[in-house]
């Protein structure tokens, strides 16, 4: 008797067969109907739909036979799956391959056999549709055609099962992806939305609703054009056109939205176009970040700078006019008394129309002159103030210890010193308000006078206070963010650093100018950053991942360098991504390791096997592959339950892992099947045999598991790859599998080398 060999794709074939979950299932009426029709059409007493498992053939449908399964090593179907044409045996009694086969010499007494292979969607042989007779015969062309047609009907049944399994897996993947996306969309801290091609909101999250002041229902009745500031709409629509035409894959811009109360506010918008499978546009995905506070701070700073520049120019012009007028008046009084009155009248007219308050004082500090702006500023008329001391108008604020601001101003003027300072003025109603005071002296008819210009700076101080508050808020935000945030100039000097510099690195955030970028990043990271800084100074944004040494140890960070918009330098942002890195490493481990035993799984094993065979082909040392099958595992499961079965597998994995070298690879393929890759062997045959003996010795030392008396043994198949030999990983695995079955059939639980 000739035992059937395994096909080269045996492992993949068994994987697909087990994947459709058809073995050991109840009969299927559809298949039973086909076997009945086949028996009638071909006039045979027995028709079987036989599925070839690893060590048996199991009949999913049978006509004329009571037996549910037989051993694979005596099966006719094991031979039939090795070819794509119909496998026919006219008289098994006269065929040397089958003459002494128990299925011929005993029940069911096979004489004639014809089998048509049944293939999966991938073209892998899963089983056979076979017809059996107790008399010798052969199929004519019509009968062979009928057998082919009925086999195709059975294949369609198997293909439908495969498609159903694939559809279930795809459905589960889609459900998981949808759940993850839903969580991200719903709980994101930034605004997220799906937008139709015509601009209608299709879906929005709560962050976007809070940002705009609209409810979700209100936003879904509107489009993005209706909440976009009119001045920003054209640029946005131009970029949308570029997305639809394929010129851009995504775009970002800063623009203004209109809140529900009509208030405009700035946002940072990122838009991506989602396309259908055929490439046609489906809808837009928008991410919205509120940057209004930053924009307002930038606007306030620009306005303050403009105001200061205008004020300096204005005050310079005013002082220049005043000095020119005073000098002209002195010259005119010396030249002619008659011109003094005219010049005084002209000077008085100028002062009356001046926007700043003007006050003239004599040597005693009494008010002798007053313009209209002064009356408006203090609420007093000139008649009420002339002759009054300066103390009536200014509060007694201290300049330094023991000095009154009013005395200091008056003394400075009378000593020919021009003095400018800020003081608190007193209104007629008793209210105090801040003023900027400039004093100087002049002479008229031998007498000395003091003149003062006063300007209300209430608005300026309020603006300065708002700017300080804004800066305090910005610092509070940056100090509480879990990231390094700083601003640097072109020479890499720190202009600003947040509190994380102190918490992470121990630096003083109040003295950022003492920090060097190399001290912050470390020498290795700084070497990476140097060429990137040049690109940032050219206006490009760059980012990379690095490991940063902190007071708490090394952390993984994502570093971004952003060009400064209004300053000649750049910003640095380094966020802690250590937890994300750990999660990625854990996911990579889970994908490549078996959850029960902790050993590399089938995926990791195949990768390691390909690398080992490649090293053997290219090197001077060979390698060996051991295929281990745990003997009697099914009986352990049946007698003691799956919980103890799992512990047996774990103990088995620990024992074989303990025996091999650290450089060898132990993996679990599936169920009770394990493999060991012995790499870099000087003497592959001797080393493999020695390893098999060590494994058997280690297993004989196991007498109980979890309190249950048990003994362990394994059938080991060994396949060798000598130095310089070229063989694929799949072929080597098939060799080891064949050797394992040879070892198992020897009834000694030993090992066999192929």
TrEMBL record:
Domain GGDEF: 621-754
Native source species: Pseudaeromonas sharmana
Protein name: PAS domain S-box protein
CDD domains associated with the record: GGDEF, PAS
InterPro entries, sorted: Biofilm_reg_signaling (IPR052155), GAF (IPR003018), GAF-like_dom_sf (IPR029016), GGDEF_dom (IPR000160), Nucleotide_cyclase (IPR029787), PAC (IPR001610), PAS (IPR000014), PAS-assoc_C (IPR000700)
Pfam families hit by this protein: GAF, GGDEF, PAS, PAS_4, PAS_9
SUPFAM superfamilies: GAF domain-like, Nucleotide cyclase, PYP-like sensor domain (PAS domain)
Residue span, PAS domain: 177-247, 343-417
Residue span, PAC domain: 251-303
TM region(s), chain numbering: none
